[in-house]
Write a structure and sequence with these properties.
The complex is a heterotrimer of chains A (291), B (242) and C (559). Chain A has one domain: ABC transporter involved in vitamin B12 uptake, BtuC, CATH 1.10.3470. Chain A contains 11 helices and 2 strands. Chain A has helices spanning 2-32, 39-56, 61-84, 92-114, 139-161, 163-173, 175-180, 185-207, 217-232, 237-257, 263-277, and strands at residues 129-132, 135-138. Chain A starts with a helix and ends in a 14-residue tail after the last helix. The model of chain A is unreliable at 286-291 (pLDDT under 50). Chain B is α/β, with parallel strands linked by helices and 242 residues long. Chain B has a domain at 4-88 and 157-234: P-loop containing nucleotide triphosphate hydrolases (Rossmann fold). Chain B is built from 9 helices and 10 strands. Helices cover 35% and strands 25% of the residues of chain B. A 6-stranded mixed sheet of chain B has the order 6-7-8-3-9-10, sandwiched between helices. Chain B has a 4-stranded antiparallel sheet with strand order 2-1-4-5, covered by helices on one side. Chain C has 559 residues and is mostly helical. Chain C folds into 2 domains: 29-258, no CATH class; 358-525, Rossmann fold (3-Layer(aba) Sandwich). In chain C, α2 (49-74) runs antiparallel to α10 (221-247). The chains are: A mainly alpha (291), B alpha/beta (242), C mainly alpha (559).
Chain lengths: 291, 242, 559
Amino acid sequence: MDQILQLLFTGIGIGAVYALVALGFVLIFRATNVVNFAQGEFSMVAAFLMVVFAVDLQWPYWLSFIVSLAGMALFGVIFNLGVYYPLRHRTFLPVIIATIGASIFLANSVLAIYGPAPQVLEGWFETPGIQLGPVYLDSQYLLIIAVTIALVILNYWFFEHTMLGKKLQATSQDKEMASLLGISVSGMIMITFIYSAVLGGLAGILVAPVLFVSIQMGATIALKAFAATIIGGFGDVTGAIIGGIALGIIETFGAAYVSVPYKDAFAFLVLILFLVFRPQGIFGERVAEKA
Amino acid sequence: MALLEINDLMVLYGEIEALRGVSLKVEAGQVVTLLGSNGAGKSTTLRAISGLAKPAAGEILFDGKSIVGLGPEAIVRLGISHVPEGRRVFPGLTVKENIMLGASNRRVAKAQLAREADAMFDLFPDIRPFADKLGWTLSGGQLQMVAVARGLMAKPRLLLLDEPSLGLAPVIVQAVFRIIGEIRRDTTVLLVEQNARMGLSVADYGYVLETGRLALGGKPDDLWGNEAIRAAYLGGHTKVSV
Amino acid sequence: MTAKTQDAKAQDLPAAAPVHSTPLLLRHLPYFIVAAIAVFAAATMSFDGYVLNILMQATTFAVAVFGLTVVLGLCGQINLAQAAFFGLGAYVVGLGTTDYQINFWICLIGGSLVALLAGALLGMSTLKLGGHYLAMVTISFQQILTLVMINAIWLTHGPDGISKIGRPALFQSQQSFLALCVAVLALVGYLVWHLPDTRIGRAMRAVRDNELAAGVAGIDIFRTKVLAFALSALLGGLGGGLFAGGFSYVSPDQFSFAESIVFLTMALLGGVGSPIGAVIGTGLLILIPEWLRFLKSIPGLYLAIYGLFVILIVRFMPDGIWGFVQDMLTRWCTKRPAAMTSPALQLVPAKTGGDMVLEVTGLSKHFGGLKAVDKIMLDGTDVTDMPPHQRTAAGLGRTFQNIRLFRSMTALENVVIGAERPGNTLTGNGGQDALTERALSALTFVGLGPRANELVSSFSYGHQRLIEIARALAGNPTLLLLDEPAAGLNSTEKLELHDLLKRIAAQGLTILIIDHDMTLVREAAQHITVLNFGKRIADGESLAVLQHPDVISAYLGTE
């Protein structure tokens, strides 16, 4: 029983990271109808930025954090202008391929600059964790869960209670109509990319002390986030978050009770199973056949 | 000087000539109706005015200045509001939110926006009970009112209304046209309709489009008595000239 | 709202495959001569070991890239696991020849079949969903396979890989094995080159160009996609098996996701639409890095450039190098239309169900997409629950309101697909010639015979509509559905259309037209049904219906 609670805590913790990345995914998809295969690289680049500022340059953590997030915002702008915007009128296939190319380019550019050895990023807190009864609460995981909860609330408030959030929703529901009302569609898309880049970056920075900071972390996180959105129901914001948490739990239990080396395979297997048997996920509507 | 002036407009969809040689005028304070059967090019005309479609040739002048080449966001800021066919109320947002978004062409504080939306419900009392309901739950007639209210929130000088009666029961259609009768006091309206009788009942002037070309133009009484209008709609005995 | 450019821009579609008229053997002989020379050169020219390795890699990779030419270029479906299939073939050959001492040839075939099976299963599980789902599934499959290769040490030797992989008895030397690879490449290349002109190849191209229209023309969309996917996997496995034999050593990191991207880039760079493009892309991307070998010294730089390349190619050169060349060629050389003759078009509708051709009962559709229908009977067959391609097989032919032609193909090819409708009694087992002849008859019937070999994009809108009608007619349907055939036509074209409809009806074919153009309706139809707000308000003989007061008020408006 103790072990189950412990695994549950870890599962939720890592699931929260997937949820954040999945959220960024879904937001871009709803605004542009594009699946961004480079979403995971946003997390990876941010983690490396933290390493550059906090470890190499020895800047204080809080400063490195802010600068890294600012860097990610800028990154979102460049990504939109360089990859999505020039292809926005093409069919989905060229865009998918372009984002895959971007993903490869980013991962390997960082590899070329930094080398293959994984980097270590210290945790944020002096105290490594709190013992709560039978369960050991790792402080970094606690931070992740706390930040995710805060972000989900912030996200909800932003979309439901600000006019900008309403404009973003309107753009993702009917771009042409939004432009007829005077909403700048390209501006909305730019904001979406910036926001998703920062979300992805935040997830990467938070999870970096727990996993090693490596080139591959982006790809693995992205695929798991994608699996999370499928589980939750593709295109659904709440579904992405719940799917992320669910996947984190499944994966952690799977690693403990079934097999460790194949831990990553669970996400993929769940993904394939859902796609075959329930493509609409838990919350989504029927998936339309692509004509 | 006419509020809106179109000269020799040509719009292509790929290789098809959707509009060719279309010229019309809308004077400030008027309600002008554009008639024609399906596929005649009425919606295309409105789309060209609001910037959704780029003309291949011709002029569109608003207040004497050319607006060809401007995007929709710029044109609505100049004072032309387009309520497109099919209503297109945002399905995932509430009625009130939809209406508030209608003011996106202006800089307005949120509190002020809410007040203006409330004022809009005075004009459209039938939809006030639905203020917090999501767009996808409404019926056709209700959606049409939301769409017009949203279009009016832009405080336009020229309102483009595309087929407001489409798919609506006759009783609702009358309600919609009654509202048009009320807003014409402050807003110039260019109305597109397939329903010729309704369309001409509120108009000061009318044009008839046929396969992308202007076939007729005149005062409503003159048009209604004209055999050609029946021919344009029912393929009568009159040979149609292009 | 209706006529927006809804298809991809023209640059996303590859060039058409023209229909030739010179005899088969004469056309193909040059290819085999060149292939034979290449094999001979590979077997006899003296290369140093390094060059041999490069060539070996290029030929085996090219076989795998041919697989992408089929699934992505021809059928428009994405496959991001080609390296996984390549790896499957390689591992079967590797493990089979070393651990189990099985003959090389059996292992090669076995490996290809294992890959084929994997591809078919993967395809069947997700090809009903859209493109990015398929992309995700293929990536997941790739990752799972890599994990298995690394971790299932009892089976795969794990990260150490497999070494000392055997070769077949006749091809023991490096050089002779290379010759074998070149021969296989030439053979596969030939098949892939001519696939677009076969029935299944045309079906793949139709699915790529316009899935909806393909279904309605009688093509089983799902089966076609799965076939393309499975074929791609087969070629991947074949290439991998040869790769294993050629290099005698394989390890998991050679078959990772990165390699799938390498294959994809090779296909895209050369031009995904043709095998020539595949060869160019593969050759360039293997040779160039060899000259720029210093790039590999910095880990990651090589692949980073690959990634950048992919973005740039997609953005600026979506048809690849060969696509660009082909574009230039078509602009400089004008095709002389081949003089072809064909018999007059015969339309013999089946009429097995007696006098009633179409009967629809209880049809309703609600907002929200829910629709209900009691029954639809087509010529005595209940088609209510049938998917589009089966209804076409039952005798239904149709055109669309917004024209749905296969834009990368010529007029003739579009109509041939219509003629290939399963259940078409008038072409039977006549083969390619009978199909072409029937298609030409249909095109001549609509007045476009002399322009049969032109790409459909060069026709005016009105003529494209005629091609669509010809495509439906070529299938010899029992009922022809025309959805707003007069939409977008000028008055001259409308007169031509009216004349065409008269000629079609004269052959005994039943036509159901939906249209607003009352002139056309009045003069062409014997019987008119009028719907208003979803209800039938008039039904009967044309003249009477048009003078019916309800109809007049519905069209001109009520007070």
